[in-house]
Design a protein that fits this description.
This protein has about 375 residues and is α/β, with parallel strands linked by helices. It has 15 helices and 13 strands. The radius of gyration is 21 Å and the shape is globular.
């Protein structure tokens, strides 16, 4: 296949759907006793709903939405810490647009901007570096956010800042890693999962072997998937075939993009600039050991937490912030609840008046439900 239209071919999709139905019947899955497959990545969630794959597959398959939206898993306290930095008069605070409207207890970065904070949307940490060069009398802070997909670009920017000797550029580091929260979910006896559709973009960086523990230790199949309809359907079929055959392996459907051992240049930059944090807080999952990254001592001058004495570097530690009353972001993000089962979905929480990140992030499950279903998906809350 060479062109995107080929990954959306209706005839090929019908053939895959027929194969999925056949294998699902062989497994004996039904609507009441479905095969529960977690798509880890929020981009996959949006693709599933955009193309209606949840409606097209056999009724014995249930998609479970995972914690693969980096904006969504950010706890409210970290948003408040962003605002604390941004409201300093000497600071130009830079961020990807996805994070502008994510609410914390003290509002959002967009609201901080409306109050006078100098908050700017950028498309790359290199944009923040350029701002630092042009504004030597200001402190330019980049909101380093995301999984392994975006971590290399931030690491390379820090390395560049070090080469240039820039002293007015720092990163508020909230980079996180995918494997530890998956282990936390698998260790939860309340989570009944039969297999995983693995994240494609993350795996471009880390390869497929960091997921080996899922098959080796937990006996669950995982298939790294692309983002087109045929990618996802083929990946679901590959998961189902493993379950039918009694296998548990890590397979790579997205081999046209994802190398087995990852991207060595990206991995080298990450290893040079970052080290695992002892612990990091995740929305809905709490503190997870070694799941976040922090800037190594050799680059500590570029660490905004250290420079401004906030967050994990604050004297006396940090204080967690409780979710808004009635908000079920944590349960939705970890697959314990569908967005439409949340009492606030489409009522107190809409894209115009979001209570949580899942409704405003481009990878949030609630945003996917709303964008591709809206009010017709709303059900009476139980």
């Amino acid at each position: 296949m060479k062109y995107v239209e080929e990954f959306r071919d209706p005839k090929a999709a019908k053939a895959l759907l027929a194969a999925i139905a056949r294998v699902t019947d062989q497994i004996g899955a039904t609507r009441d006793h479905p095969v529960r497959i977690m798509e880890i990545c929020g981009g996959h969630t949006h693709a599933i709903f955009r193309y209606g794959l949840d409606k097209l597959v056999h009724e014995g398959i249930e998609f479970i939405h995972g914690p693969g939206c980096p904006v969504c898993v950010l706890p409210m306290a970290r948003v408040d810490e962003c605002i604390e930095i941004a409201e300093r008069p000497e600071v130009i605070f830079t961020t990807f647009g996805d994070a502008m409207r994510v609410p914390g207890a003290k509002g959002s970065l967009l609201q901080a901007k409306s109050r006078g904070a100098d908050v700017r949307t950028v498309y790359s940490p290199l944009d923040a570096l350029e701002l630092a060069r042009r504004n030597p009398d200001r402190e330019v802070v980049f909101f380093g956010l995301g999984f392994e997909t975006t971590t290399p670009s931030t690491a390379l920017s820090i390395q560049q800042a070090a080469r240039e000797g820039l002293t007015n550029f720092t990163v508020f580091c909230n980079h996180i890693t995918v494997p530890p929260p998956l282990k936390a979910l698998l260790d939860d006896p309340m989570m009944q999962l039969d297999g995983f559709v693995g994240p494609g973009h993350v795996s471009m960086v880390i390869g497929v072997h960091p997921y080996d523990f899922i098959a080796d230790d937990y006996g669950k199949p995982l298939v790294v998937a692309g983002f087109e309809p045929l990618d996802l359907l083929q990946s679901v079929l590959m998961v189902l075939e493993q379950i039918r055959d009694g296998r548990a392996e890590i397979e790579n459907q997205y081999a046209r993009v994802v190398p087995e051992h990852g991207n060595p240049v990206s991995l080298a930059a990450i290893a040079d600039v970052y080290e695992p944090r002892p612990s990091f807080e995740w929305r809905g999952l709490g503190e997870i050991d070694a799941s976040g990254l922090r800037i190594r001592d050799r680059y500590l001058v570029y660490d905004a937490e250290t420079k401004f004495g906030i967050g994990y570097a604050a004297a006396g530690g940090r204080t967690p912030v409780a979710e808004p009353e009635g908000c079920s972001c944590g349960a939705v993000m970890t697959g314990r609840m569908k967005p439409t089962a949340c009492a606030q979905f489409g009522r107190g929480c809409t894209p115009d008046t979001p209570l949580g990140a899942l409704m405003v992030s481009s990878e949030g499950a609630c945003a996917a439900y709303w964008t591709y279903g809206g009010a017709r998906l709303m059900e009476p809350a139980e």
